[in-house]
Amino acid sequence: MDFTLRKINVKDTKKLTEQLHELFFTQPLAVLSTTGNSQPYCSLIAFAITDDLKDMIFATSRSTRKYTNIKSNARVSLLIDNRSNEVSDFHNAMAVTATGEVTEISEQEEPDCLRIYLKKHPHLEEFVMSPTSALMRVEVGKYYVVRRFQNVMVLQIRQ
Amino acid sequence: MSLLISLDSIAQHDPDLVGGKAYALGILLTAGRKVPMGLCVTTQAYDAYVRSAGLFERIAMELGRKDFSEMRWEEMWDVSLRIRNMFLNTPMPISLLEQLKGRIEETFGNRPVAVRSSAPGEDSLKVTFAGIHETYMNVCGVYSILEHIRLVWASLWADGALLYRQEMGLDTETSSMAVLIQEFINGETSGVVFGMNPNEDEQVVIESVYGLNQGLVDGTVEPDRWILDRPSGKILSHMAVKREQRVVPSSTGTQVEGLSPQQHNTPPLTDDEVRQVYDLVMQAQEVFGCPQDVEWTFHQGELFLLQSRAVTTPNQEGSTDNRSWYLTLRRSFGNLKNLKEKIEGELVPEMKQVAEVLSGIDMTVIGDDELGDELLKRSGIYHSWEKRYWRYFIPFAHGMRLFGQVYNDTVRPLDPFEFMDLLVISDLLSIKRNNMLERMASLVRKENRLRDALRHDEDTSWSVEFSRLIDEFIETFGDLSCGAAECSYDRDSIKSVVREMAVRPPAKSFKDTYDIEKLTEDFLSLFSGDKRSFAAEILDIARASYRLRDDDNIYLGRIRQRLITVQDEARKRLERRGVSVQGYVTAQDLAHALKNPEYVMQSIAEPEEPEGAEHIVLKARQLTGQPASRGIVSGIARVIKTGDDLLGFKAGEVLVCDALDPDMTFIVPLAIGIVERRGGMLIHGAIIAREYGLPCVTGVPDATELIQTGKQITVDGYLGIVIIA
């Protein structure tokens, strides 16, 4: 019988952010969802993340549908997960939905962002450097972290 | 695929296919020992079964619901019951059934058999986990055998196995179970021989009982014990016991019966039989090359070897590991009957009396020294009752569990906790208490003047009827003790609860909506003859167990309240002296401080909260627990951390707490749903929620930290999740 209300430590935010870093480090790809004319549209992208988890960086050709969509509506959502498509995913897999706003990276910011991006995806250098490609940044507002099938925590990011 | 292997050809096969028990017996049989004839259902049959009909995936999902490190034993039992129910409700695929049926029927016909677990890898373990998996005695007919095979398979996921999952290497991907079907030997005397006394290498120990071995193994029957010199087999000593009972075959499998006067006075074994058992264990050692523990039985003068495994050290555990204690909570029917008698006839009346005697002393008129003594005395009394609570009351809760298994085996319901519906008939003290509060509330609903007076905290003594009800309440239940929360419990707090209750229509109880007599009769009509009286008796035990699970807390709470009264007085006096008492202080410390003005108290520091990155804020969105009572509801959360939270509870809020103590239940009729950190389907919060038909989710880790008072939350009592807006 519990007579005194147990003092429980507040959930360890640090532990969860470490898990996010681990996930973002091991997963090269994310599903990016954009909207055009009220129609959601999903694309697979290669992403990288800043150390403070505030920004996600990806590259796209300017002639793609996702680029056009972003230009008309900057609000996007991304999904990153470590599923293996096995039953064990229901308790082992972690899925993170990020929501935020995308901007095209300005020339001043470009060297820092490029360094972060190419560190994770060195084989994409040619693609990123092409004059037809754009380097994009998602300012993340929230991460929704889903574990054990139905357990959902929200990490709110103050930009 | 090898689905069935005869015991006499097992020695040529892989031990992982047949499991440790069957393999050892096969080897002994081949070596010429007398072993009952048998057939092994291999692990391939288990694998084929669980891979059919999505069972494998469902087990994996059930086990993955929650981190095991955050689970209480009660929750593991619940998980285990759910998985067992999946096995009960999932028939064997026809092709598998056909392959097993013919040969089983051919081998055993209608003769009784034992259906035993034979888990792979068990023998290589350094510690023994005997009794964790199921074995069924005296099973007749091929269809019954096939049913029991599924039950043995299900016991791969028994609560004990989940507790020792790491040591046993339990894993959904790789774990499997073989089953040994053996001719059932109705032994006149049986026992276990330990080939090497764990306390003395040079000795052999023999334990023996009349009847079947089951009585010895599950602890129902106390055995005679012989100590032998290991090298020579010479009897060194014989410890006789008061022989009273034996386990014999019955229509329900086995049953306990009394011994004849002659058996009372005669040891189950003669010296010559002791010698035969000694020879048997030495032969087994010779076959395996290491000392063995052997189960055996004598039938018509012949000695049968039932099981042999290498001597293992008993499960030695550090003081922090209480898992073996949990395993002792699986009580037999006979044991529960005795417990019921002791609790109802002896312990509960004594508890009531203790609380009454203690309430007779006025704390405000005695000196500081005396108060200190009284504090220590009451602390001692309380802690001795707490110990008895753990020793007798907690194990008695298994009455509900045992009934649940009988119910599920017979009814095969889709909801493995449907059996709880039959237990609601028990008149819980906390419900009676709430009914008295409800009588006051209904008076308030009718009388506007009374309602207004309560709303404005004005005098209500003019209402004779209302005052009489309050007096009656205090006389019957003492006060509104708030359990974990130390709140005041005067007339005003009773009034504030009644005022809130009157805001809403009376809460409906489960009994208003279900016809329990019909449910009971429907259940009992599934049994006939002996079995019906057994079913009625186990239902009776389960109801007592359900009721006591609640009432015992209230009785214990009263004794604790007497302790708190002295503690409060002690704090007051110390504060008058200018000593501030902060945080949690032990009774001993308070008493010392009262008696000795120089003494410095050691208050226990509260743990520091870990730091996180400042720009990141963590919030819970959806939390998973157990669906403890069906229904879905949305409302404002009130998180109970102190007595003030309890008394401030508003009608129509969702109750969020660490553990719903029975002393807190007076606010339940005000709540629209319950969320609890403590997990389990049979815990108090779940019981009360079912009584009132409120959606309830239990076992939500850190519920009181992750949910804040004032938040809009949804309690989904079907899926066992809580959604925070």
What would your notes on this structure say?
The complex is a heterodimer of chains A (159) and B (725). Chain A is an alpha+beta fold and 159 residues long. Chain A has five helices and seven strands. Chain A has one domain (13-156): Electron Transport, Fmn-binding Protein, Chain A (Pnp Oxidase, Chain A, Roll). Chain A has a six-stranded antiparallel beta barrel. The longest helix of chain A is centred in the first third of the chain and has 14 residues, at 13-26. Chain A is globular. With 725 residues, chain B is of the alpha+beta class. Chain B has five domains: 4-183, Dna Ligase, domain 1 (2-Layer Sandwich); 189-310, ATP-grasp fold, B domain (D-amino Acid Aminotransferase, Chain A, domain 1); 333-424 and 516-595, no CATH class; 429-513, no CATH class; 622-724, Glucose Oxidase, domain 1, CATH 3.50.30.10. In chain B, α4 runs antiparallel to α6 (142-154) and α13 runs antiparallel to α14 (368-396). Mean pLDDT of chain B is 86; it is low at 482-488. The chains are: A alpha+beta (159), B alpha+beta (725). At the A-B interface, α1, α3 and β7 of A face α3, α22, β14 and α26 of B.
Kindly state the number of beta strands of chain A: 7
Distance separating the two termini of chain A: 45 Å
Strands in their spatial order, largest beta sheet of chain B: 14-21-20-16-17-18-19-15
> Looking at this structure, what is the CATH superfamily of the largest domain in chain B?
ATP-grasp fold, A domain
CATH architectural label of the largest domain in chain B: 2-Layer Sandwich
Order of helices and strands of chain A: HEEEHEHEHHEE
| Count of folded domains of chain B | 5
Structural class of chain B: alpha+beta
Q: In angstroms, what is the radius of gyration of chain B?
A: 30 Å
